[in-house]
Design a protein that fits this description.
single chain; alpha/beta; six-stranded mixed β-sheet; 13 helices; 17 strands; 26% helix
Length: 440
């Protein structure tokens, strides 16, 4: 384990609020109904295989990946399918969901529910990729990119780095931290599985220095495994961004318009790697995940193992419910998450956190004039000029945005966080990206 690393351009140091770091993962329990979206990933919705009245078990395939960029969807409970229809999601949009009435908790018989660590990998690389595909695994760090596409790398683009992203730099969120503490060896075996698929022996688990217990556990266990090492990274936001993490670990930069594989790197979130371990070694599809419930207006913060499709409101009630202090409910983290329109919307494969925040945190100060101080430029991890982007967007001069590389914005919010004039720079960057994409 070498000295702490970080990326070289921009970044900020927001308050961490990691108040659930010492909270062990608890099972959330089962609601009366689950609402399982058929699109929990980038790409095409999965093709529905069930209909009203069908009986399903935990792990039953409900919807089949429709095309290369898609992912299978499985039942997270046992019971009866009561509806297949469009239901309002977390942002108020209608999404196609499969509603299952919970009846007991019967698993598909192939699923191994023990926590024994299995170390021998009895499959070929091709078989592993197929298992990952059939398990419906997607990137669980937020992007939701179908994992089989990342795993099945073309021979001409063989990587030399596999980076496991255990940074979790968003304030409040501790789901990955607890996973690394409680399932460290399974994650390391998961790294070995991906190493086998990629044909390399170079997996690096990148962990933020603010996770000392996870670092110690992973470091001790990794000594028993060839090709898996731990790298401690200095605390800085947005260190968990894929491009920033690659630059911190390897010194390489992903050129605009290119992918990590183009410079010999593959990045996987530690939650995704654990899901790969469970799929390959335990025959378990991705139907549950750890979710942090926290925030300054949360009565009983904690980390929960939650079945996909569980209404967020069910989880919130277990943590004390929505009090008068709650001004916003955020799905994800406070920097890159989104304010929920509907708290009855379901937990998905991509839901890392549910935050209950008061006006003390959510209040947006009155916007002042830009003083051209350049602080937004200093902190932008992509080297952009957010103040200039905002100026052109305000004036509807969208053609002027192209030389400013607004498409490279990773929407981390560092600019808005730092702006002394409290200008919502991130909003302007998002709008600029949207308008440029729409005009193509």
């Amino acid at each position: 384990m070498s000295s702490k690393k970080t990326f070289s351009i921009g970044g900020i140091h927001p308050d961490k609020f990691k108040i659930t770091a010492d909270s062990p993962v608890r099972e959330a329990g089962l609601p009366e109904y689950v609402y399982i979206p058929v699109k929990q990933h980038i790409g095409a919705p999965a093709k529905i295989l069930v209909q009203k009245g069908d009986k399903v078990k935990v792990g039953t395939l409900l919807a089949d990946a429709d095309g290369i960029v898609s992912a299978d969807v499985h039942s997270s409970v046992s019971g009866e399918v009561t509806k297949v229809e469009d239901i309002e999601g977390e942002f108020g949009w209608l999404e196609t969901m499969i509603t299952v009435k919970v009846e007991g908790d019967e698993f598909e018989p192939a699923i191994d529910r023990s926590y024994d660590v299995i170390k021998d990998i009895p499959y070929t690389p091709e078989e592993i990729v197929q298992i990952i595909r059939e398990a419906g695994i997607v990137g669980m760090g937020g992007a939701g990119y179908p994992t089989p596409i990342k795993a099945a790398v073309p021979h001409e683009k063989k990587p030399d780095y596999l980076i496991l992203n255990g940074i979790e730099c968003e304030p409040f969120l501790t789901a990955d931290d607890r996973l690394m503490i409680e399932r460290a060896e399974q994650i390391i075996v998961g790294a070995k599985i991906i190493n086998k698929v990629l044909g390399i022996q170079n997996a690096i688990i990148a962990v933020d220095e603010n996770k000392p217990e996870a670092i110690e556990i992973l470091t001790n266990i990794s000594r028993r495994y060839v090709g898996v090492n731990v790298q401690v990274c200095a605390t800085k936001y947005p260190q968990g961004g894929e491009k920033q993490l690659i630059q911190a670990i390897t010194g390489r930069e992903v050129p605009p318009g290119k992918l990590p594989i183009d410079i010999g790197c593959i990045v996987q979130n530690v939650g995704t790697v654990y899901a790969i371990y469970e799929a390959v070694m335990k025959h378990k599809p991705l139907f549950e995940r750890i979710v942090t419930v926290s925030g300054d207006a949360c009565a009983r913060p904690g980390n929960y193992l939650v079945r996909v499709g569980t209404p967020a409101s069910f989880l919130i009630e277990q943590c004390g419910g929505v009090s008068e202090d709650v001004d916003q409910v955020i799905f994800g983290g406070p920097m890159m998450g989104t304010s929920a329109v509907n708290i009855n919307a379901p937990i998905t494969k991509l839901t890392s956190g549910i935050l209950l925040l008061s006006r003390r945190i959510t209040a947006r100060p009155e916007e002042g004039p830009c003083i051209r101080c350049g602080k937004c430029v200093d902190v932008c991890p992509m080297g952009l000029r957010p103040f200039a982007i905002a100026s052109f967007v305000r004036d509807n001069l969208y053609d002027e945005l192209k030389p400013l590389r607004v498409a490279d914005c990773i929407e981390c919010g560092s600019c808005a966080y730092t702006c002394p004039a409290k200008i919502p720079l991130l909003d302007y960057c998002k709008l600029g990206k949207y308008e440029l994409k729409k005009s193509k």
